[in-house]
Amino acid sequence: MTVQIAGVASTPFGKHPDSSTRELFTDAALEALEDASLSVHDIETLYVGNFVGDVTDDQAHVGAMVADYLGARQAASMRIESACASASSAARSGVQAIESGDADVALVGGVEMMSASGIGEITDALANAADNEYENEAGLTFPGIYALMAQTYMNEFDASQEDLAAVAVKNYENGVSNPLAQRQEETDVESVLESPPIATPLNLQDCCPITDGASAAVLVSERYADEHGLGTTVEFAGSGQSSDSLALQDRRDLSRTRAAERAAETAYERADVGPDDIDVVELHDCFTIAEILAVESLGFFERGEGTRGALEGETAADGRIPVNTSGGLLAKGHPVGATGVAQLVEITKQLEGRHPNQLDDPTVGLTHTVGGSGASCVVNVLRTGGA
Amino acid sequence: MQPWFIDFAEGIDDGEPVYLACEECGSTALPPRTVCPECGTRTLEERSLSETAAVTASTRIFSTIPAYADETPYTVGIATFDEGVKLTGQLRDADEVELGETVTVGVEQRGNDGWLVTFSPTG
């Protein structure tokens, strides 16, 4: 009994000053339901990822709020929070609800409204994913945390700022053809290096933007898809989630993300695939260094060789292992609590053959979503194969 | 700010910093842990920590949270003690620091009950 993906949708990512958490999520959810040919009354379980809403909106209880405004009051609803990995955790939970037999139809997604807050306020809110006492009180920001990881990596493996910038250049280029992406313009290595410093060695274009956005996916049991003739063609193949120390200082190796390694191992095992079987990847490039660490954690490159991906075109859309054909977080944008399902939306479109950056017949895709500096990581694997 | 961190910071301020060592597996950690994160036993013993450490990584921060908005740019680093634990702190008396450089670990009081860990190069 597999879990099928019946419909997916993301709103445009960027600024939505006239919308709100409840409205933006409803937009994505209704589009995903329409894509699935199902109605709001079919939803039995609703899990929504949201990270900073209770800080930016003074509004918690987001699960019930979005179920209410979606017209799905019958659903068991819950907000799932694991920082930037919230929506990926919500998707896992939806899969588990169906696999357990508790539900046949689960709506999973995420939403974040970030642009209305000032840069200081939103940086403060995002910092809640870090260790408040040991990191925030020392004035260490999120870009700062990743900057420490970047510096460590660059020293250890003789990598340069140019090597990091190559990741931004690739992902910006992919974002150009994604109509939902926040940044739809190319950049070059020089522009990345000349963009304002945020936390050395990371510059502005090494960092994902502040984004409003929502994403949703309708998950159904194989039996339900069959009985209702939904014609699904993509299924959940496996999932893994793991944790690591909350604070970066408590890791033996600052440039290694062990939660990602463990989550990937579990997801590969459950999906009965390995890194060589993956045709398309959406991974958590909140900063350029994050993509380099991720391609190593996921087993696509040996440790210390992740820079090769963007530099030598191996992770380009026409490369050996295409990474972030959507533009990734760097170009597509990063509405934190929505990102994990936004990644699943992109992979589903690739496997269904309707992606704006369509690859040649991919059959297995993977998403990788990181919470904080790597204290949470979720890896989900999808593959073609319908009910 | 949590009471455990105030205790930890006051320990540094008094010249009596502490860390935790596991009697079972020998791994080390910073408070307030009850369980050893490596082996899962509850055999952590409080021991006194060195007052200097070596810089493992550092970054100069130009864009920050409101609490530090008026102080940019400033440098934050992670330093490693001989005992094995690592700690995050803000650099004092210099803008840049070499990796491996020895720093004296201190604290500064911020506001009513806030404490900030600081690193000052010994050289």
UniProtKB/TrEMBL annotation, chain A:
Residues 3-183 form the Thiolase N-terminal domain. GO terms for biological process: isoprenoid biosynthetic process; lipid transport. One of its GO terms (molecular function) is acyltransferase activity, transferring groups other than amino-acyl groups. The keyword Nucleotidyltransferase does not apply. Keywords: Isoprene biosynthesis, Lipid transport, Lipid-binding, Transferase, Transport. Residues 240-383 form the Thiolase C-terminal domain. PROSITE patterns: THIOLASE_2. InterPro entries: Thiolase, Thiolase-like, Thiolase_C_2, Thiolase_CS, Thiolase_N. It holds the Pfam family Thiolase_C_1. Its EC number is 2.3.1.176. Residues 1-20 are annotated as: Disordered. CDD domains: SCP-x_thiolase (cd00829). This is propanoyl-CoA C-acyltransferase. It comes from Natronorubrum halalkaliphilum.
From TrEMBL, chain B:
SUPFAM superfamilies: Nucleic acid-binding proteins. Residues 18-45 form the ChsH2 rubredoxin-like zinc ribbon domain. Residues 48-105 form the ChsH2 C-terminal OB-fold domain. Pfam families: OB_ChsH2_C, zf-ChsH2. This is Nucleic acid-binding protein.
